[in-house]
Design brief:
This protein is an alpha+beta fold. The chain has a single domain, classed as YggU-like (Conserved Hypothetical Protein Mth637, Chain: A). 23% of the residues lie in helices and 32% in strands. It is built from two helices and six strands. Strands 1, 2, 3, 4, 5 and 6 form a six-stranded mixed sheet that branches. The longest helix has 14 residues. The chain is globular and about 35 Å long.
Length: 111
């Protein structure tokens, strides 16, 4: 299995108390979870179909679970109908990167 890149786009805002994350969505997946990175974006897989905002809601819940946040601390800002989405999370980028580092490690993806 090839190694996954660990770098992803993350920008601090609100004097460093929150950040913006760009995400590549994979709706209708068999298994939910962090699927690595794709072109500098976090890639998240959810089983919900891309209908009536169900995949967007599942993505927000998944991102919150991965980062240890409540659902109301994750907000979809852009990309409601696109695969590339932008979320605002109430954590600084350095904390987001630290919490996802172990999950993005190449050996963490092997089964």
């Amino acid at each position: 299995m090839r190694a996954l890149a660990q770098d992803f786009e993350c920008r601090d805002e609100a004097q460093g108390s929150a950040c913006r994350l760009r995400v590549r969505a994979q709706p209708g997946a068999r298994r939910e979870g962090l699927a690595g990175t794709w072109n500098g974006l976090l890639k998240l897989a959810v089983s919900a179909p891309p209908e009536d905002g169900r995949a967007n809601e599942s993505l927000a819940r998944l991102l919150g679970r991965l980062l240890g946040l409540r659902r109301n601390q994750v907000e979809l800002l852009a990309g409601e109908r696109a695969r590339t989405k932008e979320f605002r999370v109430e954590l600084p980028c350095r904390t987001v990167r630290a919490r996802l580092a172990a999950r993005l490690a190449p050996d963490a993806q092997e089964e």
